[in-house]
Amino acid sequence: MELKSKRIKLGEGIYLNLIENDKFKSNLLSCYFTRPLNREEVTKNALLPLILRSGSKNYPSNLEVEKRLEELYGANLSVSVNKRGEKHIIRHTMEWAKGDYLKDPQLDYEVIDTLWEIIFNPLKDGEKFNSEVVNREKENLRRIIEGKINNKRTYAIEKCLEEMCKTEKFSIYQLGYVEDLKTINEENLYRHYEELIKTSPIEFFYVGHYDDDLVKYLEKKINIARGELVTIPESLIMKSPQNKKVIRELMDVNQGKLVIGYRAGIKHDDPLYNPLLVASEIFGGGPNSKLFKHVREEASLAYYIGSTIFKYKSILLVDGGIEFGDYDKAVEIIGKQLSNLKEGNFTEGDIDIAIKSIITSTESIKDSIFLISEFFFSKHLAGDDRSLEEILEGFEKVTKDEIIEAANEIKIDTIYFMDKYR
């Protein structure tokens, strides 16, 4: 079944996206707020979904929220905050068993009401949030932020991106900063919440079974007072390296973490973007890649190694786990393999394996109701009106010459290495 989205404008900057899908025994409704990624509000944005998830006016505690979810046949409520390029995204999602499947025709409506309650009818004291809830969730967020160093691989990637994009908004940590928590209180956080509701572009995505009555109910329910919408700038894409520097950080670790950041400067709507993805797959995408074969298998230098493209910034990252003394040799071989890629030293068989891997990974979207929602939201952010089938066909048309051309746009910018104390 081809995935299609029906888009309905419900207000200024508010849209409902309907994706009919009968493959799953569940339905899903996601609400995405888009904000500019900036230092002034990033921590407040990260804190808000924790506050809202912990209780509302009619379900005034986390326990009451959980009881309500159980009443809805174990519906799942999830929230997240992340960055897509230099846009800050706040997501609330509800997934639940289909009312028809449970022979409860009112269930879909009750779930919609509950998600609306959580997001738009928060627990508050007058014109401010509940102080006890705010203080508790500030402490929870502080622990999350301070705990980022516990996952050394993720931390190393974040640090490389932070250093690489030091003069760009993308360097801002998506979950905010501990020092900001001191100045956030129940009053200014509630004012920010009101501002977010009034001025943010809001996208609702419904995936599953629906009929005209449910659509009419959603259209009536999603009624939000609006102000002047906040400007969401396009993500800045640099075509040439900004730093060309090496960052070495000493820690008490047993394994070195090497991350190399490259600029490609190829936007996601550029004809060379698909060839760039294929180039990255050949370079470091899996067990058939150049990095896996030459760095890990032949030279035995890496516990793991691979490459990733950050779509909205056109950044390619290589990250690997290596022995501390193998830094120079690993950097040398990685550089040599990138040179080989740029010179076209790969086969048609390598291209076929890379394209099949990308297609298989992209097609797996169909197997997850949540990933379907994410896929269509990502398409919206990118201004991409192609269907999934058209996207897959695009990969099959990529040629070797295009891959070489895209690879030659990849230029080293920043090297980050997590070393041990000597």
Order of the strands making up the biggest sheet? 1-2-6-3-5-4
Structural class: alpha+beta
Strands, total number: 11
Helix content: 40-55%
Low-confidence stretches: none
Question: Mean pLDDT, as a whole number?
Answer: 95
List the helices and strands in order.
EEEHHEEHHHHEHEEHHEEHHHHHE
* Global outline: globular
Helix count?
14
Cα Rg: 23 Å
The end-to-end span amounts to 58 Å
Largest sheet, described in full?
A: 6 strands, mixed
Could you tell me the strand content as a percent range? 15-25%
Task: Using brief descriptors, characterize the structure shown.
single chain; 422 residues; alpha+beta; 14 helices; 41% helix
Task: Provide a concise account of the structure shown.
With 422 residues, the chain is α+β, with helices and mostly antiparallel strands. The chain has helices at residues 42-53, 62-71, 107-120, 131-146, 152-164, 186-199, 212-221, 273-284, 290-298, 327-342, 348-363, 369-382, 388-396, 400-407; strands at residues 6-11, 14-20, 26-36, 76-84, 87-97, 202-208, 245-251, 256-263, 302-310, 315-322, 411-420. Helices cover 41% and strands 22% of the residues.
Report what the structure shows.
The chain is globular, with a radius of gyration of 23 Å. It has helices at 42-53, 62-71, 107-120, 131-146, 152-164, 186-199, 212-221, 273-284, 290-298, 327-342, 348-363, 369-382, 388-396, 400-407, and strands at 6-11, 14-20, 26-36, 76-84, 87-97, 202-208, 245-251, 256-263, 302-310, 315-322, 411-420. With 422 residues, the chain is α+β, with helices and mostly antiparallel strands. Helix 1 (42-53) crosses helix 4, helix 3 packs parallel to helix 7 (212-221) and helix 11 (348-363) runs antiparallel to helix 13. 41% of the residues lie in helices and 22% in strands.
